[in-house]
Amino acid sequence: MNQQVFFLPFENEKEDGKTTVEWVKEQNWSNGHIYSLGVSYEGFTAMMMGGEEGVVAISPIMSSGNIRRDWFYENHCLKQAFVQSWSHSFAFTDEEHMLQPSVIDYIQFLSNDIAKLYKRKLTDFPVNNNLPYYKHWINENDDKYWNYIDKKTNARYWDASGYYVSGWYDIFCEGTIKEFLLAVNRSSKPQKLVIGPWSHTEIFKATVGDVDYGIYNFEKYSSTDILDWFSKIEKGEDVVSEIKLFIMGKNKWYSLHKQPTVIERNMFLAIYTNSLGDKERRLQWEESKNNEDEFTYKGNDLVPTCGGRCIDAIPKGLGGPKNQELIENREDVLVYTSERLTKELCVIGKIKIQLVCESTLEQMDYAIKIVDVDQDNCPINILDSVLRIKQNANKKRKL
To answer: Considering only 16-20, 296-300, 336-340, which range has the smallest mean pLDDT?
Structure first.
């Protein structure tokens, strides 16, 4: 009797990793020293092996171990494009065991216009009828499922070395940084963090999105550094903990070989609006009393994501730095612009936005985006986030 095999994301990787490690150690060609490496989901599986005996070092690339927080939701808002495009790809991956060919053909047909599918209700997405886990993924309050996944992926208590890689425009960038900081605090072994200008689908490249960061980016860092780092550890050579960052704008790599001195500066840019309307929406250093503004939410024509930290099945919607002109020209998007900077400004770390808002809806998602206007007057997204606010919540919220 043939046994059906189903792929259930996240649920068995920790146990499978343990089995894999045990098998490798039993082989004649193995010296018992194991190094695990992977990108995206495989980066997650590499991370799940970190606590096993014999695993010397891991390298999770573009990944994170906190599934609900870093994979599916941001400030309680579902990462819709990622969840639906990713689950959609599963629907026709395994023809033999998952779906009948006719169902696969139908889902593939629907994907030809997947942009329209995004405008449907989440429960109307085709895979909801075929993949048992999709209904859990779109429900942040399904604590039974998420607690089960947390238990299955709870492998973040190891002493192995770690080489963590992400990109400023990667969907897992924040999660990768958190994993690195956890590793530094829990392990006595060397840890390394590398963050380039990359998006999730444009890793280790000089051109990302609409921006060419120059051949300097390509030449000064190579992914083979991961294997070189593993080799030094295996040979017993001295390896120090390091943070290697690509600073956009300067378009240069910087290395921090020790814990950097934290200099915290409070710099406030306040919204300014006057009676002349949207042509006078400005950002200024001093707070203005006349700073109220409004927009009309268009439920039937939502503002699309344009670049940023995302993964999308639509090629034109891929993440990274993108020209924001089409988005900024919409009537339901408020744009505030400062005067040109007179001197260089370098920001590394957390940015907080204080939003005082009021809505006629019971629930509202506010998306905030920081954009750099380059020398050609092209607005390029630097950072974005989103926050869900409910009517009874405190109106003053920080992103």
So the answer is: 296-300
